[in-house]
Every structure is written in structure tokens, then in C-alpha cells.
């Protein structure tokens, strides 16, 4: 009981520290999210008819999927273009023995059989994530923040990183531009925590700039 109390006190202390942002930062960050989200949504709207038709012609199922992720302490519905067969999430447990990320709860499989033919294309160029600008405009995600993960994954975070579930998750972030799913479990959490503890508008703009550079020259790296 005493150890549990110590852990809770540490988490509370970290949470309070995270609430102390640089002057004006929350307002500037939200303004940046609205401007960037609107711009991204315009691109999404232009691409939707083409990508949507290709998804429908390629396989059965909806054009968009709403996936459960955790952001700011709540479970949200994160929107994506569907890149997998219908019912893909229910098959995840069957593929667990082939998980290439064995150091934690995250799942990665290079040749995932659930991916559709067109799904491989939009994932390679990160086009499947375009609908997330809807989440940004709704205030459920930010342009920059810790990587959004599934509730069952976050429940397995070590206690020193449990505070990350209370942060506003982002479309991109320090861990995403530093190796994404190729990172070790502990390293990804370390980078997300580093961002959360040192937020600033300059830091956000640097990460956005690096994300754009990666998307233009090496989209598979995000």
C-alpha cells in the first residue's frame, strides 16, 4: 500500500508539472492545431473521392474506420482510411505469435496478412492517417504530441510513464520522427515523456518540420 501511494504521488507531481506550460503556449498550440487541421482537412477532402473509391474497389468494408485510442485521459475514436480487411482487430490475437515487437504490448508485423493491396500503398505514403485531421479540429488530437495507443496497450505502461495517457496525443511527435514503430518499447515511451516534459511552440514547429521532410523524402520512416 505504501509503495502504491508513493507511485500515485509521483504521478500526481508529474501531472501538475505538465500543467505548467510556457506563457501563452496552450493558446498558440490550439491555434496551430486549428490552422494545420483545416489545411490538412482540405487535402483530405480533395483526396477522399479517389482514395475512397480505390478502397471500395479493392476490398469489402467501409472507407473510414474509427479506432479506439487514448488521448488526454479519455478513449477517443481515431479516424483512418481503412487499410486492412474488415474485422482486422479481432484477428490480432491470432497473429500475436508473429509479433515482431516482443519487448512490450505494441504490435508490429512487417508482412501483416490483414493489410489489403491498396492498404499497403496508402500506409507507405501515410495517406491512411489523413482523416485524423478531423480529430485535431475536434480537439481530440493535436498536430504534435505523444503517440496515440490502444487502451489495452496503455494499461501496460510502466508506472513512471502512466502520466502519458493524460497528455493530448498527436498525429506526429518526437517518437514518430525518431523511428516510430522501429523503436524499442521503452525508448518510444522515453521520447514521448521527453516531449511532454519540455513542450514549447518551437519544439512543436521543429517536429512538424521534420515530419514534413520525412514525408517528402522517406515516408516509410514515420
Description:
With 222 residues, the chain is mainly alpha-helical. The chain has one domain. Helices cover 46% and strands 10% of the residues. It has eight helices and four strands, in the order ααββαααβαβαα. The chain has helices at 2-18, 25-58, 92-95, 117-124, 132-137, 151-154, 185-197, 201-217; strands at residues 64-71, 74-81, 142-144, 170-172. Strands 1-2 form a two-stranded antiparallel ribbon. Strands 3-4 form a two-stranded parallel ribbon. α2 (25-58) packs antiparallel against α4 (117-124). The model is unreliable at 1-7 (pLDDT under 50).
Give the topology.
Blueprint: H1 2-18, H2 25-58, E1 64-71, E2 74-81, H3 92-95, H4 117-124, H5 132-137, E3 142-144, H6 151-154, E4 170-172, H7 185-197, H8 201-217
Parallel strand pairs: 3-4
Antiparallel strand pairs: 1-2
Question: Can you describe this structure in just a few lines?
Answer:
The chain is mostly helical and 222 residues long.
Keywords summarizing the entry:
222 residues; mainly alpha; two-stranded antiparallel ribbon; disordered N terminus
Tell me the total number of β-strands. Answer: 4
Would you tell me the structural class of the helices and strands?
A: mainly alpha
| Total tally of structural domains | 1
Q: List segments where confidence is low: pLDDT < 50 over at least 5 consecutive residues.
A: 1-7
Major β-sheet profile? 2 strands, antiparallel
Cα Rg:
18 Å
Q: Which bin fits the share of residues in helices? A: 40-55%
Q: Quote the distance from N terminus to C terminus.
A: 41 Å
- Binned strand content: 5-15%
Gross morphology: globular
Order of helices and strands: HHEEHHHEHEHH
Indicate the mean pLDDT: 90
Tally of helical segments: 8
Amino acid at each position: 500500500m505504501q509503495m502504491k501511494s508513493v507511485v500515485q504521488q509521483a504521478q500526481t507531481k508529474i501531472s501538475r508539472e505538465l500543467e505548467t506550460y510556457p506563457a501563452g503556449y496552450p493558446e498558440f498550440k490550439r491555434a496551430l492545431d486549428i490552422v494545420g487541421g483545416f489545411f490538412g482537412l482540405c487535402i483530405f477532402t480533395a483526396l477522399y473521392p479517389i482514395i475512397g473509391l480505390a478502397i471500395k474497389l479493392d476490398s469489402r468494408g467501409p472507407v473510414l474506420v474509427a479506432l479506439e485510442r487514448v488521448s488526454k485521459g479519455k478513449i477517443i475514436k481515431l479516424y483512418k482510411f481503412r487499410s486492412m480487411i474488415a474485422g482486422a482487430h479481432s484477428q490480432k490475437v491470432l497473429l500475436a505469435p508473429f509479433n515482431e515487437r516482443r519487448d512490450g504490448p505494441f504490435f508490429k508485423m512487417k508482412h501483416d496478412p490483414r493489410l489489403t493491396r491498396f492498404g499497403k500503398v496508402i500506409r507507405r505514403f501515410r495517406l491512411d492517417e489523413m482523416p485524423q485531421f478531423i480529430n485535431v479540429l475536434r480537439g481530440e488530437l493535436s498536430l504534435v504530441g505523444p503517440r496515440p495507443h490502444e487502451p489495452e496497450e496503455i494499461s501496460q505502461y510502466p508506472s513512471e510513464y502512466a502520466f502519458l495517457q493524460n497528455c493530448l496525443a498527436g498525429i506526429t511527435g518526437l517518437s514518430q520522427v525518431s523511428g516510430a514503430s522501429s523503436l524499442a518499447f521503452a525508448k518510444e515511451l522515453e521520447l514521448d515523456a521527453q516531449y511532454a516534459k519540455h513542450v514549447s511552440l518551437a519544439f512543436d514547429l521543429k517536429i512538424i518540420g521534420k515530419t514534413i521532410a520525412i514525408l517528402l523524402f522517406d515516408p516509410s520512416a514515420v
